[in-house]
Design goal:
The complex is a heterodimer. Chain A is of the alpha/beta class. In chain A, the strands form two sheets. In chain A, strands 1, 2, 3, 4, 5, 6, 7, 8, 9, 13, 14, 15 and 16 form a 13-stranded mixed beta sheet that branches. Chain A has a three-stranded antiparallel beta sheet with strand order 10-11-12. Chain A is rod-shaped. Chain A starts with 19 loop residues before the first helix and ends with a helix. In chain B, helix 1 runs parallel beside helix 4 and helix 3 packs across helix 4. The chains are: A alpha/beta, B mainly alpha. The interface between A and B is medium-sized, with 31 and 36 residues.
């Protein structure tokens, strides 16, 4: 395959799909530019992209990263027009350069191109893709039960062998095997590989494109594909929308649950407020206004948990009985106190009584005379009676005090809470008086509290408050019912909360994250539109130079997430025009334009172009050739064509372009390929022509003729050595680029030494060595303008041909 | 004042000039190769004569000059086809004529560089 130097013609636009790494960079940039309201959302988006990147089926087999695959060989049987390929394997030089595969219509070219694409994709989808029924091509060769394809790709020292078996009955099977420094192992051509193949646009088939494009709308769709940001972008977009929708759905569910609960609460409140039992009104539930609250705290705060103490009335069943017990107890204590006081005459004698008690117990005091008054009575017996009366009083007074205290406690804990209700008619003032009196004076007998307790208990034992208690008791039951109903209403909402809150809480954030992705998409799309417009404008100008067609704008229609089509603004001769105005030839040239925008950054360093000049006139053929020659400066370009014009125009740009001719025998379906002319053969043919012309033109005698002929001989030998090195590297699993680098700028003599060493040492490449020994000095001298007049140039050409043939045919 | 030439006619004339320039440059190259002997402008061996531009060069320069000569030879054949109406070029596009003129300019520069030392030595005389 001929290599060509890069030219400045045209511009390479990279329309590669967005990768996860690029997307992460883009989102990180947005995070860096964020302020508080959007920061969380953008971080969330970044986390999502990073998560998806980590989950994205990685290039586990290492088939893409750092690779530049080129085609080393292809073998086919039973596919399309190729029953059998002879020789069985078509070997290619896996280096940048151009190779033309030429042959008449129906010679199997398209089948070979298709085989490459089928094999690369790892399935037969390509065979059925976008081909109308009428023109659907048979996948398998006539009578073949299955087709087999083996494609070997080379990248550095690695070799990837893809074997595909296609069958109508069995479907397709594909196995891949990589051989590199780590050994030989089976690999899976996973999704990452297939996405990369799809995105690389490394295979161009005019026939398939034409079958697909039947209407102006199809052409628009074709252009729209150039604007697509790629599968990774779509994956992230879809996942974001899924999560966003899930969050929005959760938020909707919660809002709905809240609405239903709130409506149920209103209805419930109305019902209980109209309840004749007049339950004490409960506070309205304060429903959450955001999905970010602590639901347990919210329930607690709204009295919606079982242990919540909502201040409400609860009339004990034994309230009257207990009041009566307290009243009886107080009355009994009062009665006993009264008796004690009667007996004692005066309560104020207590201290004296104690003193008397002490005296009566003092045996030192004589019995005859009272130590207090001096009378002669039985003072000791009398004093002891007084002391006993005082003790009884003290006991009874304490009993009264305790009874008042008990009444106070009951009042405080049982009775007074009942006055919180809206039911009137209770002994509220009496209860308040008892509490106030106790606080002021305590609970002593005959105190204000004693009086208040008696009054309160007396009031409670009367019939005046029975109706109040009955009403109160009914109200208490209703309040409990209300509270339970309130909890039930809230519970339905809380169940929904526990199910949806986590997702719903993120809804706003996902919405903002989606907006961020929209922003990035707008920016990217704008950039892509600018690139595509500019690339198409350049390409159309290159392909259709005299047609005065100018693409002014290729633009997405519809909003950011819509895929409604593409607007193409163009002029012909400065007048606004539409795609429908293009002739078929112009349209075909337009379809080729994206080829010229291919990037070289993907893992596929080759381009397979099948029949690119269909219906093109000679000028267009020339333009296509110019673009292909430009692409061949950086990529391995395989051009399949039936049209000799293309080969001719390519050869005009790349004199030693490689050509393979294919022929097909319709009877046997055998497709025979012949390397029509290797680069060195082209050079030596040129030397022959030059020599003959110079003789015919009568300037044979000049040293310049020798210079040119021997220069071509040496150039041919160098070319054959290069070919030999590539073949050796391919067959030995070595890096082709490294193998060529070993030649570097070495003179031809050292190159011969190198190739002789590779062949096994001196004596193996005898004709090459003979060339070195007998001709190379003359070729070098001639090349430098120091030719020997009268040299037998035919002998020189013959020697070069023999050496080149030897190098080509050697079993590397 | 006659009728102004159409753009098509102008381009055809430029194609003719391209062809003539290539023949003259080929003759110059042959004259230099033969040591200053006047050479005719026969068109029969133009492509081979053009190859003389690479004579004496070496390495990358040799390859580059050879490609220039090959490209010029192809352009010569293209102009022949246009002028003899062998091909359905019709109105030969501006872009092609411009490109051919560029090829001639490149070749002329290469020839001038090659002939410069010879002129200095008085070969022309």
């Amino acid at each position: 395959m001929a290599s060509v130097p890069p030219t400045a013609v045209g511009s390479t636009r990279v329309l590669s799909p967005v990768t996860y790494a690029e997307l992460i960079d883009l989102v990180q940039d947005q995070v860096g530019r964020s302020y508080a309201p959007t920061l969380d959302a953008r971080r969330r988006l970044l986390a999502l992209v990073q998560e998806m990147a980590s989950e994205h089926e990685p290039d586990t087999a290492g088939l893409l990263e750092g690779r530049t695959w080129r085609i080393a060989s292809v073998a086919i049987s039973g596919l399309g027009g190729v029953g059998t390929l002879l020789p069985g394997r078509l070997d290619l030089e896996p280096v940048a350069g151009l190779l033309v595969v030429r042959g008449p219509n129906g010679s199997g070219k398209t089948s070979i191109a298709k085989a490459l694409e089928v094999s690369l994709r790892g399935d037969q989808a390509v065979a059925d893709e976008a081909v109308g029924d009428l023109w659907a091509t048979a996948l398998l060769a006539e009578g073949a039960p299955s087709a087999e394809i083996e494609v070997v790709l080379a990248s550095g020292a690695a070799r990837l062998t893809i074997r595909s078996e296609l069958g109508d009955a069995t479907g397709s099977r594909c196995a891949a095997e990589i051989a590199d420094a780590d050994g030989v192992r089976q690999v899976e051509l996973g999704r990452a590989w297939k996405d990369a193949v799809q995105a690389s646009r490394s295979c161009y088939s005019y026939a398939r494109l034409q079958a697909r494009l039947q209407k102006p709308l199809d052409l628009q769709e074709f252009l729209l594909e150039l604007l697509v940001l790629g599968p990774v972008w779509q994956e992230v977009r879809d996942e974001l929308e899924r999560r966003s929708e899930r969050a929005a759905d959760a938020a909707r569910q919660l809002t709905k649950a809240k609405g239903q609960a709130s409506a149920a609460e209103r209805s419930m409140n109305e019902r209980f407020r109209a309840d004749p039992r007049r339950p004490r009104p409960l506070p309205d539930i304060e429903w959450p206004t955001s999905w970010d609250v602590d639901i347990d705290a919210w329930m607690d705060g709204n009295g919606l948990v079982d242990h919540a103490e909502i201040s409400s009335v609860a009339v004990a069943d034994d309230l009257e009985e207990r009041a009566e017990q307290l009243r009886a107890r107080l009355a009994q204590a009062e009665r006993e106190l009264s008796a004690a006081e009667t007996h004692l005459d005066s309560p104020h004698l207590a201290r004296t009584a104690h003193h008397l008690d002490a005296l009566a117990g003092d045996d030192a005091i004589p019995d005859g005379e009272c130590p207090l008054c001096g009378s002669h009575v039985d003072w000791r017996t009398h004093a002891r009676d007084v002391v006993r009366g005082v003790d009884a009083w003290r006991t009874n007074a304490r009993a009264v005090e305790e009874a008042v205290g008990a009444a106070d406690s009951w009042n405080d804990q049982v009775l007074r809470p009942l006055f919180g209700s809206d039911v009137p008619g209770g002994p509220e003032s009496a209860a308040r008086e008892l509490a106030a009196a106790v606080r002021a004076d305590g609970t002593r007998a005959h105190s204000r509290a004693h009086q208040a307790a008696r009054a309160l208990l007396a009031a409670m034992s009367g019939g005046a408050h029975r109706e109040w208690l009955a009403t109160l008791r009914a109200s208490s039951d209703a309040a409990a019912e209300w509270r339970r109903a309130r909890v039930e209403v809230a519970t339905a909402f809380v169940v929904s909360w526990r199910e949806h809150q986590k997702a719903a809480r993120d809804a706003d954030s996902w919405t903002k994250a989606s907006a961020t992705l929209d922003d990035i998409q707008v920016e990217l799309r704008q950039r892509r539109q600018d690139d595509v417009t500019s690339g198409m404008r350049t390409a159309v100008a290159a392909m259709l130079p005299e047609a005065q067609i100018e693409i002014t704008r290729i633009k997405h229609e519809g909003k950011v997430k819509q895929r409604r089509g593409v607007q193409v603004a163009m002029t012909i001769g400065g007048v606004p025009a539409t795609l429908g105005m293009l002739s078929s030839g112009q349209r075909n040239a337009l379809l080729l334009a994206p080829l010229t925008m291919l990037g070289t950054t993907n893992a596929f360093g080759f381009l397979v172009v099948d029949d690119p000049i269909h219906a093109l006139d000679t000028t267009r053929v020339d333009r296509v050739a110019a673009e292909l020659a430009r692409l061949a400066s950086t990529q391995q370009v395989l051009v399949f064509t039936h049209d000799p014009r293309l080969e001719e125009h390519l050869r005009a740009r790349i004199p030693d372009v490689g050509v393979i001719a294919v022929e097909r025998d319709p009877a046997t379906q055998e497709v025979t390929w012949v390397r029509h002319r290797t680069p060195w053969e082209a050079l030596l043919a040129e030397a022959e022509t030059f020599k003959s012309d110079s003789m015919a033109d009568k300037w044979r005698a000049t040293a310049s003729v020798e210079s040119i002929v021997t220069g071509l001989c040496r150039n041919a030998l160098d070319g054959a050595i290069r070919h030999a090195l590539i073949t050796h590297a391919v067959r030995r699993g070595k890096d082709v680029a490294d193998a060529l680098d070993e030649l570097g700028d070495q003179p031809t003599r050292k190159r011969i030494k190198h190739v002789v060493t590779l062949a096994g040492g001196p004596g193996v490449l005898r004709r090459t060595e003979a060339c070195r020994d007998s001709h190379l000095d003359r070729w070098n001298s001639g090349t430098h303008g120091d030719g020997t007049a009268g040299l037998d140039l035919q002998t020189e050409i013959r020697a070069a041909r023999r050496a080149c043939t030897e190098l080509t045919n050697f079993s590397w | 004042m006659g009728t102004p030439l159409s753009a098509t006619s102008q381009r055809r004339i430029r194609v003719l000039l391209v062809r003539q320039d290539l023949e003259l440059l080929a003759a110059d190259l042959l004259r230099a190769a033969e040591g200053g002997v006047a050479a005719d402008r026969t068109h029969a061996y133009i492509r081979s004569r053009l190859l003389l531009v690479a004579a004496g060069a070496s390495g990358e320069e040799w390859l580059q000059l050879r490609n220039v000569a090959r490209r010029a030879g192809t352009v010569y054949r293209e102009t022949s086809d246009v002028l003899h109406s062998n091909r359905a070029f019709g109105d030969v596009p501006e872009v092609l004529v411009t490109e051919w003129e560029e090829v001639v300019a490149t070749l002329r520069a290469a020839v001038a560089e090659k002939l410069q030392p010879m002129s200095a030595e008085g070969i022309e005389q």
